[in-house]
Write a structure and sequence with these properties.
mainly beta; nucleotide-binding; globular; two-stranded parallel ribbon; 1 helix; Kinesin_motor_dom_sf; 5 strands; ATP binding; microtubule binding; P-loop_NTPase; three-stranded antiparallel β-sheet
Length: 78
């Protein structure tokens, strides 16, 4: 039996015309997990429950930015 871990990828979606931009940073490290930090300023978080927290950090196998083409994502993931 082959023992393999679950792989989790992220792709940052471009904003729609009426969406306000939050701040995010991507740290793609080839040797370890990539991290995505999302910062939601309090004024953009109005109307959402976020418990006054402004920074969220997540780890993924790889993170694709807004400019990533579909074929690049497919070749890397599939």
């Amino acid at each position: 039996m082959v023992k393999e871990t679950i792989r989790v990828y992220a792709r940052v979606k471009p904003l729609g015309r009426r969406q306000q931009a939050g701040i995010y940073s991507v740290d793609n490290d080839e040797k370890s997990l990539s991290s995505l930090e999302i910062i939601v300023p309090r004024d953009l978080a109005d109307g959402f429950v976020n418990n006054k927290r402004e920074s969220y950090k997540f780890k993924f196998q790889k993170i694709f930015d807004q400019e990533a083409k579909q074929d690049v994502v497919f070749d890397s993931v599939a």
